Amino acid sequence: MKKTAMLALAGAALSVGAIAEAAPGDRLRDRIAAWRQARAAPPGPAVAAPAPMTLAYGADPLQQLDLWRPANASGTPSGKPSGKAPLVLFVHGGGWKRGSKDNAGSRWAPLHFPAQGYAYAAIDYRLVPQATVEEQAGDVARALKFLLGRADELGIDPARVVLMGHSAGAQLVALVGTDERYLKAVGLSFADVAGVIPNDGAAYDVPAQMRDGPAIMQQTYAQAFGSDPARQRALSPTHHAATPNAPAFLFLHVQRPDGVRQAQALGKALSAAGSKVEYGSFPGEGLRGHGEINRQLGNPDYAATPLVDAWLKRIFAR
Question: Is-contact 200 252, C-beta < 8 A?
């Protein structure tokens, strides 16, 4: 009976995908967390999103993205797009070592954002330990460069782009939005990003999070950020915020103390440097709340959705 139960547990966890290679203890914790998150997942929309356009932005199998476009950017008989849509580019979470565009994002988003008139892209990126966090941030910038380089073909307005990420993805988009080196490496700059939406991240100040964050995450942080304090600071958006940054940020979070603390600290630093900063605070605690604010974003009945819609409308109207 025990063996059957353990096999069922492992199978349920694996069904949500993207369990990376790790030490046995870490792998078991990942599986249990994924299983719990899957069981807590609310139902998605009744109508499935249309099939996306899947594109490779690099040579690695994980350097791919899915793109959904609104009807007014779907093209004309001549092959030319009939309109250019603002772009929302989403970066999934998963502790920098797991997750994918297929299993770590909202099922509402591919329907909701195109219905608002926006192109919506969800990217994969290379994972720790095969890649570094620096390379992951580089993948975010490279995916954006790929899409902007084909803006006319894809019906994207290159002047209206927002980066959005959840959990580890929140740290990555915040890093790209505060440390311009990643954009400059692919020939872009902060001028190519209208805004950033970090969704319930908690590693904007890596040394502080490794010092004060929950014990259950310390092995994940150590694997991602290492033990060198200089590297930890270099990967911390809060430590870059005194310099020029992306012009606007919307921090979303539930009631996880470390997530709230980290979002407020980064937001304060960004405001002092001249970026426009807003916050969205929503009910939810622990893993369930952390997952729900990602899975439900785009659901018109979920409180974060109208707030994000209103913010995007203002940002894209500029």
Answer: yes
Summarize pLDDT for 146-203 with one digit per residue, the tens: 999 999 999 999 999 999 999 999 999 999 999 999 999 999 999 999 999 999 999 9
The DSSP secondary-structure symbol of 96 reads T
CB 239 within 8 A of CB 269: no
Q: DSSP string spanning 22-51?
A: --HHHHHHHHHHHHHHHHHPPP--SSPPPP
Query: Sheet containing 156-166: which strands, arranged edge to edge?
Result: 53-56, 64-68, 119-123, 85-91, 156-166, 195-199, 248-253, 276-281
Long-range contacts of range 216-221, CB-CB < 8 Å, 24 or more positions apart? 216/29, 217/95, 219/23, 219/26, 220/26, 220/95, 220/96, 220/97
- Closest residue by Cα to residue 201 from 109, 133, 124: 133
pTM of the model: 0.86
